[in-house]
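Posting this for the archive.
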Amino acid sequence: MADSKITALTSISTSSDPANDPLVIVDVSDTSMAATGTTKKVTLNQLLATSPTATLASATITGDLTVDTSTLKVDSTNNRVGIGTATPADTLDVNGRVTALRYLSSSSNAALPSFAVSAGNGAYNSGTNEIGFSINSTSAMTLNSTGLGVGVSPGSAIGNLQVGGSTNANLYTQQGTDTVRMGVRASGRTGIILDSSNATYTNRAWYLDNAGSSGSLVIGRQGLDVITFDNSGNVGISVTPSAWSTGKAFEVGAAGNAIWSSTGYTTLMQNAVYNSGYKYGYNGVAAARYDLESGTHKWHIAPSGTAGNAITFTQTMTLDASGNLLVGKTAIGTTVGIEVRPDGYLVATRSATTDGAGFTNAVYSSGAAAYRFYVGMGGTVFATNTTISGISDARLKENVQDIDVGLNAILALKPRKFDWKAGKGKDIKGDRGFIAQEFEQVFPQLVDEWADPAPESETPYKSVRQDLIPVLVKAIQELTARVQTLEAK
């Protein structure tokens, strides 16, 4: 376009063309311009593209502003600013990665963590007073006055940090291959998962979770519940705790294999559950129970039964608070069983009344495969050797004198034949022996009181200690002397 001299200045009534419409420019380095009267021109686009760039004190743009198509776009019609997009969809629309944000104040220069959002948005919702972050138009994180929610909108009844989800662990930390996850397992139960594998939750994983509507807390491994705490306070190891109608129980391995405790007692059980009475825990195994109650130890047994059915226990042994050990009976006395008392008293009680009906206090030799000693229930002492050896060492005796009774005392005794009353003594007819009251007239020192209680107001029953060998020997000596005297005449 040829140069033209400026003859007048008028307003442009039509739209200008910044690429072609010339602007008059004075080149101060060209001194010939004044002499020749020539002018130079430049377009607005050329002026903006010059180097170094021009510095404006201030500028007001009343229309849109576009920098490199989509690097920066100011949409004056919709009052929007776009970075990385030529069509901003919100007041500030950033399409791309924001590498860092900084908060600047007079006293600090604190950097916020980097974050990236692809095809998503984060915005403040004035209606709900929340800041939301979305990815691919799906809500990912929400911050409100209650707290921060990831995958869920935080509610006041839950907590300040809330994580939601459906199929995988929602909180996850990792150091090397060791991980801690919190959320939902593949089986659909929520909890904390400890894992040494990045692959699946069930591979070498331990978990702590809430077992659904039952309210139980479970510690498990590889899909197996190892320890279960139910909402009644009972604990099960490799078994879900049974329903105990009172007290608390610790079960191991199977229902009813438990330590159970309630007010006043603690019980060790096998195959027994207390639920409004004792019930079998499982089938085909006998039940047993050991009670520690107010200082008394009690052992019980029961035959096998069906799971859930009532158990009838038999108390087989008791160690009471006084130290009495009772087998087959629950209290000291004359009922059938064995008593071992702390003062050394030992008694075995049976219901049989004759020797043939049974015996007690037996000594059996496994080497000889034979009984060596026992006491029949008729009172007979049976022994393979009837010799009784009593200690008689001279070193244990003093005031040794000749015996002063002999033949005369033997002659004063009254050997008798008699029948025992039914159920008394040997309980036989035609027995031979002495009457204790008669025997006492000759040898009072050989008469004792018997253990059976006598009728009220009567004297105790008497027994005879038939230890007559020394007297018999003395009598034989006297007879021998007499015979020798007669023979000498």
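Confidence is low (pLDDT under 50) at residues 109-120. The CA atoms of residues 195 and 205 lie 4 Å apart.
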